[in-house]
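Quick start: read one record
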Amino acid sequence: MKIQRFCDGISRRDFVRIGALGTGLSLAGYLRMAHAGEAKNAKATNAIFVWLGGGPSHIDTFDPKPDAPPEIRGEFKPLDTNATGVRICEHLPKLARLADTFAIVRGITHTLAGHELGTEYLNAGSRPIPSLVYPGFGAVVSKEVIGDKDLPHFVAIPGTPQKAGYLGVRYAPLLTNDVPKPGIVFSVRGISLGNGLTVEEFEKRQKLLTELDTTFKGAEANSKLIDGLDTFAQQAFDMIRSPKAREAFDVSREKPEVAKPFGDGRFGMSCLLALRLVSAGVRFVTVSFGGWDTHNNNFKSLKDNLLPQLDTGLSALISCLKERGLLDTTTVFMVGEFGRTPKVNARSGRDHWPRAMTALLAGGGIKGGQAVGASDEKGMGPADDGFSPDQLAASFYHTLGIDHKKEYHTATGRPVMIVREGSVIRGLFS
């Protein structure tokens, strides 16, 4: 797989593998007491988080500025959607026809212009600090929402920058490390179970333990190996090998008429797998789609590659969720780490710009067909007070009936709220 590097030299693969360090399959259903009744008022029971790593241009996607000067409005024209008064980029025609199903949040603003810090902020909803690693959305959902004991609770396709943080390894993601290919059974052998240990490597360990036990017929011969096996990896292995889980991961089982709208690109196939997983009962799925760090050739990259893939995959995902009656109970949340400069640079690109950005939310009680908030006439910043990533996070948790002000405790006993600042964006729900 091609490794994409951001402008600061950090590889995209590094970001999506950050969650793999010291992590494994989330086992909330096995390993914790159920918090009965906490989510009883929730609209959603599942979520799909679409991560646009690199920072997509807000002006060239969901917040066009057709009346701004040419050096700001860029090369693309706005396109009317089926939602009155809502216009998006002309290269998102399929999403334009579905605008009544989702809400665009405009005027999101923060001050972290580096990829790593912006990524941490937008994947956890709390501004990062050196002394604490906040859990990502998937870890919190795994802890708070009861899942099927035969299914993983938090799956990342193919990886995610989200971490379990102070919640610990039991709430960390299962990484697929690859995406499905059209019409081919998706192998689970490369999936990470914990600490980078894959299903295939785990099978080899089990085989070695069996051989040692047969040869030496004693506990001493294999005790060190047994001690080295992570408890959660063992449970994750048992879960991922269950018939129900294996069927959930097998996109080749989908009818051709269902799979066709997703296309055969990596992002579209990732969205198809996400659809299949939440249909089976997986509580939280992330889909990572990088390449949005467009300092150079912004318009060509968007027009020829990124926007067509996004339009195809996301529109098919939302449409199929709706057709299956799952959109009300599945929150779709799409965002990147920041926007990009309103002014086009000398390389026909746009640079980092956290002062203004957008997000898209659908399902889970979100009122579709609207743009909430606004950026100013040149896309430089919010037109009024704007929204923070903390408010986005609080709103996301609200769709799942999770109180973002709930306190957890770190291993040292330190009390920490799920989201330190921010409040629910009420306009998303009215």
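Residues 12-195+231-429 form a domain with the Alkaline Phosphatase, subunit A fold (CATH 3.40.720).
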